[in-house]
């Protein structure tokens, strides 16, 4: 550690913890065994701050802030799991479910889905918002993989892994807000992509059934969760 | 004075429908309609989905017989893959399907129909149910529960869970069966065979009057005579030896004299011999045998039809029972009351067949699925569901994305026959100014004999309070009856 990096002390959930000044609250919490739920964050990829599941309360700040994008400050008092936060997390998750067609029972990742397990974790029992039932396509043109927009939560893990780890940058996003879509190349069918290396990293970092391998039936698509940490570690070892 | 009677919903069947009886000035039934009033549109919502999701997606049509939809859906997908399912995969699928026949037939017979037989059609509706049977004949109620549980356990052991298992997939099944599981199922079969035999004996004896052994002299002789007792064609799948085959086989049609009208029809060409007629008063279509046209091409499916269609069952005890069943009529057995009898024989057959399948060395093999991508743009899957022949027909694009689906459900095939049946039974039993509950129960019971699954056949949902109204043409309600 460089001697120029300063150490900050702060309180997370009534525990005194020390952190480097460039660390985020999420990093420090994880280092200290304090669990904060996330969907878009993934170790080995840059922070995105899109899913908002990692929101925390900071004393003196009326707004809830994403812990993955908020760096620590001296004397900060952080709460990660108040009733207010739990309520917001549940509502956020309900919005995810209402926004697209997440039908778990016939999904290839049923039983392996992070969105599904998050719903259990935050004790979501109902979706209180009206379902939008958007008419969305499936891109099944690729030889090995399928992109199902119905099950995408726009976390951009696939976009980031394709750019930051594989270096292909085949995947990207178009449009904003509720219209946001993951695209391949310049919004061409995936099967026609000249940049895709067919590495499959996007599939294995996808938290839901939006990206799956072809040929998988219901409940057969488990994701290789250790793939990215392994790759990151091996690359660091070679540097 | 003409008037209309509506029975809505019909009780002790799967799904929700209503019956409308139109009475003329002299108080007799002029017309009778079996109406299914809701729909869910599963065929439409499948468009745009991956074809591999189809078996599980379509199985959500029904919670009673999801396995039938899984089997027919997976068989349609096999054709899209253009593969032959490995022997082990086929054996396991077939065994799961038989498990479902056992559980569904047990539900239909013991839970839904036995109350009418044990308590009587005119008994108080408060007693005329499985709990009433439990009081009056506890052994029988317990037998029904035990048999149904056994069927459900087979599905759970071989497919992962009892309702909507995901193990039946395009190309085969996802998991092999261990020797332990096979032995566990085999160990229970002798007891189950005793249960079915005991209840077949009860059925044959208890329904007879004065201890006579002839089934034709039944204490339900009026019901037997009037419960959709009519000439029609019968359709079912038979194997190459003319035996019962719930999983595979080719289509055979016989007429009311059991003469073969058409045989060895390829399920894939079902549209050559089955067409669907639409009426504007029900969401349930009217399939008919195309070469004879509508309505002459009326046919029945399900247990009664299957036993009329086959040369033999193919298992020893069931064949003995079948030969007795054949004695009920010189040609085909025509009264739909005998669906109940046929159902018991089919449970017996299923148990014997299960024993045969599970004893095959290949049953515990490891190769349970064929792996391929979409190679055909179209697939038709056909199998015998508890209620009759089930057809799933899918069309996909070159990437395997669903473009179109058509489902013809067992209860749909029987639609014309059910409508004729309620007309026949209503004309016999429903008469006069005041509606007696027992009269209407018989009208419902004829539908119950077919054991239709309205959720399946129209993909209907919802529940309505039961209300029967007798109204004058000007809408004035002269009599109201509420049930259940």
What would a concise description of this structure say?
The complex is a heterodimer of chains A (239) and B (484). By secondary structure, chain A is α+β, with helices and mostly antiparallel strands.
Describe the protein.
The complex is a heterodimer of chains A (239) and B (484). Chain A has 239 residues and is an alpha+beta fold. Chain A has 2 domains: 7-81, Ubiquitin-like (UB roll) (Roll); 105-238, Alpha-Beta Plaits, CATH 3.30.70. Chain A contains 6 helices and 10 strands. Chain A has helices at 25-31, 83-99, 114-121, 157-166, 201-205, 227-238, and strands at 7-12, 15-20, 55-58, 65-66, 77-79, 138-139, 145-148, 171-174, 181-184, 211-213. By secondary structure, chain B is α+β, with helices and mostly antiparallel strands. Chain B has 2 domains: 3-37 and 413-482, no CATH class; 42-371 and 407-411, Cytochrome-c3 Hydrogenase, chain B (Orthogonal Bundle), CATH 1.10.645. Chain B is built from 16 helices and 16 strands. Chain B has helices at residues 42-45, 54-59, 66-81, 87-119, 130-136, 138-159, 179-206, 221-226, 270-273, 303-309, 316-326, 339-358, 410-413, 415-429, 437-450, 454-458; strands at 3-8, 18-23, 29-35, 168-169, 172-173, 233-238, 250-254, 260-265, 274-277, 286-289, 299-300, 378-385, 388-396, 402-408, 467-471, 477-482. In chain B, a hairpin with an 8-residue loop joins strand 9 (274-277) and strand 10 (286-289). The longest helix of chain B has 33 residues, at 87-119. Chain B is globular. Mean pLDDT of chain B is 87; it is low at 458-468.
Query: With helices defined by DSSP (H or I, 4 residues minimum), what is the helix count of chain B?
Result: 16
Indicate the CATH class of the largest domain in chain A: Alpha Beta
pLDDT averaged residue by residue of chain A: 95
Strand order of the largest sheet of chain A: 2-1-5-3-4
Strand content of chain B: 15-25%
Number-wise, the strands of chain A total 10
Q: Average pLDDT value of chain B?
A: 87
Shape descriptor of chain B: globular
Largest sheet of chain A: 5 strands, mixed
Return residue spans of chain B where pLDDT drops below 50 for at least 5 consecutive residues.
458-468
User: Rg of chain B, please?
Assistant: 22 Å
- The ordered H/E elements of chain A are EEHEEEHHEEHEEHEH
Overall morphology of chain A:
globular
- Derived from helix and strand composition plus strand pairing, the structural class of chain B reads alpha+beta
Kindly state the number of beta strands of chain B.
Answer: 16
């Amino acid at each position: 550690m460089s001697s120029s990096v300063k150490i900050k002390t702060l309180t997370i959930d009534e525990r005194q913890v020390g952190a480097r000044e460039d660390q985020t609250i999420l990093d420090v919490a994880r280092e200290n065994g304090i669990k904060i739920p996330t969907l878009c964050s993934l170790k080995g990829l840059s922070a995105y701050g899109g899913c908002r599941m990692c929101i925390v309360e900071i004393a003196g700040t009326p707004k809830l802030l994403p812990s993955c994008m908020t760096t620590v400050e001296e004397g900060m008092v952080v709460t990660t799991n108040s009733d207010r936060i739990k309520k917001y997390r549940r509502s956020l998750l309900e919005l995810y479910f209402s926004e697209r067609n997440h039908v778990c029972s016939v999904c290839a990742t049923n039983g392996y889905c992070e969105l599904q397990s998050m719903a259990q974790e935050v004790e979501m029992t109902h979706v209180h918002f009206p379902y939008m039932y958007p008419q969305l396509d499936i891109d099944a043109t690729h030889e090995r993989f399928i992109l199902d927009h119905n099950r995408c939560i726009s976390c951009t893990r696939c976009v980031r892994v394709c750019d930051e780890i594989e270096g292909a940058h085949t995947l990207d996003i178009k449009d904003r807000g509720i219209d946001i879509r993951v695209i391949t190349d310049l919004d061409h069918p995936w099967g026609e992509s000249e940049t895709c290396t067919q590495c499959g990293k996007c599939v294995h970092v996808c938290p839901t059934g939006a990206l799956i391998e072809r040929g998988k039936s219901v409940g057969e698509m488990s994701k290789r969760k250790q793939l990215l940490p392994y790759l990151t570690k091996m690359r660091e070892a070679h540097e | 004075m003409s008037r209309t009677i509506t029975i809505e919903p019909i009780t002790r069947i799967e799904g929700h429908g209503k019956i409308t009886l139109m009475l003329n000035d002299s108080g007799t039934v002029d017309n009778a309609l079996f109406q299914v009033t809701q729909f869910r549109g599963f065929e439409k919502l499948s468009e745009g989905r991956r074809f591999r999701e189809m078996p599980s997606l379509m199985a959500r049509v029904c919670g009673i017989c999801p396995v039938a939809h899984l089997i027919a859906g997976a068989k349609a997908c096999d054709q899209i893959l253009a593969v032959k399912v490995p022997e082990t995969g086929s054996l396991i699928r077939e065994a799961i399907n038989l498990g479902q026949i056992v559980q569904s037939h047990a539900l239909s017979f013991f839970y839904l129909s036995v109350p009418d037989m044990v308590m009587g059609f005119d008994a108080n509706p408060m007693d005329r149910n499985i709990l009433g049977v439990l009081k009056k004949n506890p052994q029988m109620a317990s037998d029904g529960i035990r048999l149904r549980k056994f069927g459900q356990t087979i599905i759970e052991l071989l497919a992962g869970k009892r309702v909507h298992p995901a193990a039946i997939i395009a190309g085969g099944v996802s998991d092999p069966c261990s020797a332990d599981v096979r032995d566990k199922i085999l160990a229970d079969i002798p007891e189950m065979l005793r249960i079915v035999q005991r209840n077949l004996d009860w059925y044959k004896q208890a329904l007879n009057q004065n201890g006579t052994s002839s089934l034709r002299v039944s204490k339900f002789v009026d019901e037997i005579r009037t419960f959709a007792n009519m000439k029609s064609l019968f359709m079912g799948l038979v194997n190459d030896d003319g035996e019962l085959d719930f999983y595979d086989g080719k289509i055979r049609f016989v007429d009311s004299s059991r003469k073969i009208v058409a045989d060895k029809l390829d399920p894939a060409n079902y549209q050559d011999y089955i067409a669907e007629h639409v009426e504007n008063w029900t969401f349930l279509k009217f399939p008919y045998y195309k070469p004879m046209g509508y309505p002459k091409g009326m046919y029945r499916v399900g247990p009664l039809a299957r036993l009329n269609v086959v040369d033999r069952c193919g298992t020893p005890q069931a064949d003995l029972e079948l030969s007795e069943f054949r004695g009920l009529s010189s040609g085909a057995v025509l009264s739909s009351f005998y669906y109940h009898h046929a159902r018991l024989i089919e449970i017996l057959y299923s148990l014997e067949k299960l024993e045969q399948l599970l004893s095959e060395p290949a049953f515990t093999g490891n190769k349970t699925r064929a792996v391929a991508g979409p190679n055909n743009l179209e697939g038709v899957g056909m199998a015998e569901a508890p209620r009759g022949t089930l057809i799933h027909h899918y069309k996909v694009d070159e990437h395997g994305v669903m473009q179109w689906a058509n489902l013809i459900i067992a209860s749909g095939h029987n639609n014309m026959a059910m409508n004729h049946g309620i007309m026949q039974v209503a004309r016999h039993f429903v008469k006069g100014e005041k509606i007696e509950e027992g009269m209407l129960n018989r009208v419902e019971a004829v539908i119950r004999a077919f054991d239709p699954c309205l959720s399946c056949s129209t993909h209907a949902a919802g529940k309505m309070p039961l209300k029967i109204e007798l109204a004058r043409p000007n809408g004035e309600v002269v009599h109201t009856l509420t049930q259940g």
